[in-house]
Amino acid sequence: MKIVGLSKKSWRIEGSLFAAVASFVACLTLFESWSLGVCLALVAASSIFQLLRSRELASEHSNSRLVPALAESLANGFEAGLSLVECFEELSRNSNKKLATKAQEMSAILDSNSNTSNKLARCAELISCREADLLFQLLDAAAVFGDRRLKQTLLGSARRTRDLHALEDELSSRLSWIKGTATLARFAPWVVVVFLSMRPEAAAAFNTTAGAGVLLAGLISSELARRLINAAAGRSMVQRPFRFGHSQAGSVPA
Hints:
single chain; mainly alpha; elongated; disordered N terminus
């Protein structure tokens, strides 16, 4: 599913370029300062790129919270003798709005003409998080090797996922103030610079070699400070090791 990832990245790049051009044009129009325009364009581009990336991570975070309930519902459905498609149809009728919408889309995918692995891979990309990757890999393995102890595995996975989410949420809440400090440290100096540039003599000073050097030094310093603070407050990002590949060996028809 690399196309999805590439389209998201291209959207971030396009948004960043638009913000950079808009900031540069605004600075030239308002302050007639090319050096300030270049610096603010870089700051705006980096900020928009990070904002769009944060929104994608927030969406992935929200989707991951659906997985424990999904795993438990599938386990209960299998125990009642329902097929995979019937489990998703039941979910679409008896769950919260977001999960019901996802379940309806997955039910349509599972009714399509494709092999089991491709269907499950498409379902996993609808939720698009590492927890969903693992869940649908378990279902794919059960389709190939049999569903013995699948219910216990799904319930255990749901329990461990909830524990992991609780730990992640606690850690994120403790680190959020550090990230807020990094954001303030990054933008506060540029707000001051913009206000100073409203004075014609200050805007003219920024167009000199010395003024441009000061702005460049400030740009580098603020970016380094942001990266250092984020590194100190950040956590190693968990990748998606269970993500479906383009081809799966040993798949069986649905």
